[in-house]
Design goal:
The complex is a heterotrimer. By secondary structure, chain A is mostly helical. Chain A is 64% helix and 0% strand. Chain A starts with 5 loop residues before the first helix and ends in an 11-residue tail after the last helix. In chain B, helix 2 runs antiparallel to helix 3, helix 5 runs antiparallel to helix 6 and helix 5 runs parallel beside helix 7. Classes of the chains: A mainly alpha, B mainly alpha, C alpha+beta.
């Protein structure tokens, strides 16, 4: 169907915000590495992926805009903290540690891929089409970060320890990617989104497979707390949001 | 994004070239001939071209730092994307120029280590602060605009790998410049507050843009190796005049005022008065203008600029923090097949 | 405020503590804009192995413009006179200053043989500057219809000059129109007073 029924608007916009905000803030955080990454060529590649994430988020904000009429920049930039729907792993500080950036990237990219595949089966055509298109680019991200996990896991004793430590440290935050967006049950019941079974399981399996192949381990528990998906954010997110909004908020009505 | 045709090499320190070969080489280059890495070249040519490419590469990756400060604060989705892409391009330009320099005999590691320990230099304009979003807009418009003018002439030089790189770089500079123009026009069509921010940033960057092309020409500029060997095909003053002819009327058309400014040690403007010399000579088509503050320029180049220490600190930190990564992936490649 | 990464930067002077690793080997990258175009030399890069070389090549040389296809190989492979009996892609630089261009594929015993065959089959009597040859077994090929290079899902015009031509023209026109109106109004006021 090309038109979304009115009673599905609110829960669907919420789901879309989860996708868009995850990508916006991951891209935002990763774009900060541009110019200061460990290897010039890797810097360029990593920046490409950050731009992809921001471009993807932009496409999702456009989709939201097509329903709500609100300008995509306004959607992205002008909400209050508790109105953002990203999981806080996307803005978890990496403290200039490349292993942390890769671990964060890894958990998020694989999750985005699995989630986009699922959204490709939506009966709301504009979403299915968008998700399919973005999924094709998302595959590049998964390949990219898988390659890094493998190289670091099999590199030196030092790199193995560093990436293992980062994976362990970020695992609890990664779990929260799976916090359920409010109202999603309504979309499943209404047949707008297909509930193919647990995204969490699919994601966890994919993550474990890559990690084990690289001689590393990971331990992920299902999400058990209320967090970013429901607007409850931590300090790292608050700081990232302040950066995002700093210039915009000097005049939200102005053109930049 | 920036150019440097103003490095010097002590020609006398280079091995004396076979006079016959040297004469033939100079005739070849003077008549527009090009030089590729495997061709014979005098040691002095190789050394000067290397220093030029190295300085240019250093400038690109240091230039990525001040603009990088605003990536996370860009105020719209488009600006986030475009600024990230611009800074990414600069890293790419640095990468390509380091490859050119490496082919002339100095390894990338050696060049990076010399940069971060202050042994080699980079373009002066990156030692100035970027306190507002409008500074980013002005850098993209003025400095990338200057770079295009400069690099356009460098693309007619004599060394094959360098001129091929200039052509590639200029394609991207066109995007940087156009985007910069878009940002400046947006501010100057915006609120009073935006216009004021734009004017203040313009005041900070007009001088550095004029100084971008390097000090005033020496009387024997065209006989010096850089021009004699066609590494550089236009003089600093020629390019500076071209820049003013293009940008002075454009700036004024947006409503900006071209001021002569005094700055404090932190690079902040303490006074700004309209340039009294700014006038179009209808006959020649050239604008007369006040030269940039050359005392300040030389002070900054010698390390006493507002941001010299910060730029080096971040470049060095990035380099040292990344060492374990480079070790890891090289180790991994040695222990598995290269292919 | 600056991002965290750029704020807490220690200022360290003196000699570097690190002892650096070897420089990575150099790879050459060829790109094909459209299926109907020839592969042209895009540039070189440094990478520790083929998998990174491909990744770096795609994100650096594959993002300037549309890219249908990309080839990546060690510089050594393009320059070597050695090798074994196999197919070699051959590339010619016509003059000093030009880029190497793919001209075809030859069966040869080694690099030198491939170079000779290239001269016979593709260059014939014409002038040329240098020839590169690369054994097929040493060349990684990235086909964009299997492995996307240039991003097709999202609008890439934000990173191209042509993405701004129209909007910049419109903004100049609007600015000049406003100034003319302002000037006109100020002339008007002059007359009144």
């Amino acid at each position: 169907m090309s038109e979304l029924e009115k009673n599905f608007h609110a829960p669907m916009m919420n789901v879309l915000l989860c996708v868009a905000d995850d990508k916006l803030f991951l891209g935002h955080r990763n774009s900060d590495w541009t110019g200061i990454a460990p290897i010039l060529e890797a810097d360029i590649a990593f920046s490409s992926l950050a731009q992809d994430d921001i471009a993807h988020s932009s496409a999702f904000y456009e989709l939201i805009s097509s329903v709500t009429g609100q300008n995509p920049d306004q959607i992205a930039f002008s909400r209050q903290i508790n109105e953002y729907r990203c999981a806080d792993i996307v803005t978890k500080s990496d403290q200039f540690n490349w292993a942390a950036a890769i671990a964060r990237q890894f958990y998020c990219n694989v999750y985005d891929y699995i989630r986009l595949q699922s959204l490709s089966n939506s009966t709301w055509t504009p979403l299915a089409n968008l998700a399919k298109r973005i999924c094709a680019e998302q595959a590049i991200h998964v390949d990219h970060v898988t390659s890094w996990i493998e190289h670091l896991g099999q590199g030196t004793e030092d790199s193995k320890n560093r990436i293992q430590h980062a994976l362990d440290e970020y695992a609890p935050f990664a779990s929260m990617l799976n916090e359920s967006p409010e109202g999603i049950e309504k979309l499943f019941d209404g047949g707008v989104l297909i509930n193919e079974g647990c995204l969490f399981t699919a994601w966890k399996e994919h993550v474990i497979q890559i990690v084990n192949k690289s001689g590393l381990t990971v331990s992920i528990e299902p999400c058990s707390v209320v967090g970013g998906r429901n607007g409850k954010h931590d300090e790292d997110f608050t700081r990232s949001l302040a950066e995002l909004q700093e210039v915009f908020l000097t005049d939200p009505a102005a053109a930049w | 994004m920036s150019a440097s045709a103003n490095v010097e090499v002590n020609i006398k320190d280079c091995e004396e070239a076979d006079p016959k070969k040297l004469a033939a080489f100079e005739a070849h280059v003077a008549s527009g001939g090009l030089v590729e890495p495997n061709d014979w070249m005098p040691e002095a040519y190789r050394a000067l071209m290397l220093r030029m490419a190295e300085h240019h590469a250093n400038s690109e990756i240091v230039g990525a730092l001040p603009e990088g400060e605003w990536i996370t604060r860009a105020p719209s989705l488009l600006r986030k994307l475009a600024l990230t892409a611009k800074v990414q391009d600069e890293v790419g330009h640095g990468q390509m120029l380091y490859e050119v320099a490496q082919d002339l005999g100095k390894s990338r590691n050696a060049m990076l280590r010399d940069l971060v320990t202050g042994v080699t230099k980079y373009h002066n304009c990156f030692n100035y602060p970027c306190p507002t979003w409008a500074d980013i807009c002005m850098i993209a418009w003025l400095i990338d605009g200057a770079a295009i003018l400069n690099q356009g002439t460098l693309a007619h030089g004599s060394f094959g790998p360098y001129i091929r790189t200039m052509r590639r770089i200029n394609m991207e500079e066109a995007f940087h410049f156009k985007h910069g123009e878009d940002m400046v026009l947006t501010l100057m069509s915006g609120t009073d507050s935006q216009k004021k921010m734009a004017q203040n940033a313009f005041d900070r960057w007009w001088g550095p843009a004029l100084a971008f092309f390097g000090p005033n020409d020496r009387p024997d500029e065209r006989e010096r190796p850089a021009m004699k060997w066609r590494m550089k095909t236009a003089t600093n003053d020629e390019l500076r005049q071209k820049f003013v002819n293009r940008f002075a009327p454009a700036a004024m058309a947006t409503g900006l005022v071209i001021n002569i400014c005094e700055k404090d040690e932190s690079g902040f403007i303490t006074s700004a008065t309209p340039d009294p010399l700014l006038k179009l000579n209808e006959e020649t088509g050239d604008w007369s203008f006040t030269q940039p503050d050359w005392d300040e320029f030389f002070r900054v180049i010698r390390g006493k600029g507002p941001c010299n220490k910060d730029r080096l600190a971040l470049r060095r930190f990035s380099y040292e923090q990344g060492e374990w990564v480079r070790k890891a992936i090289l180790n991994d490649s040695h222990s598995s097949n290269m292919n | 405020m600056l991002s965290e990464a750029r704020t807490h930067v220690p200022e360290i002077t003196g000699d570097l503590e690190s002892t650096e690793v070897d420089n990575f080997p150099i790879w050459e990258v060829f790109t094909q804009k459209k299926e109907s175009d020839v592969h042209l030399h895009a540039g070189s890069l440094s990478a520790p192995d083929a998998s990174f070389a491909k990744q770096f090549a795609r994100e650096h040389y594959g993002q300037d413009q549309e890219c249908a296809n990309m080839w990546v190989g060690l510089r050594e492979s393009f320059l070597s006179n050695d090798g074994c009996d196999e197919s070699y892609e051959v590339f010619v630089q016509k003059n000093a200053g030009s880029r190497h261009e793919h001209v075809g594929c030859v069966e040869a015993n080694n690099g030198k043989d491939a170079r000779d065959k290239c001269k016979k089959q593709f260059i014939k009597g014409d002038a040329f500057y240098t020839i590169w040859t690369c054994p097929l077994s040493a060349l990684s090929k990235i086909e964009s219809d299997i492995d996307m290079i240039w991003r097709e899902a999202t609008d890439q015009s934000y990173r191209l000059a042509r993405g701004y031509s129209k909007i910049v023209r419109q903004k100049w026109d609007a600015l000049r129109a406003t100034k003319s109106v302002d000037k006109y109004q100020s002339e008007d006021l002059k007359e009144t007073f």
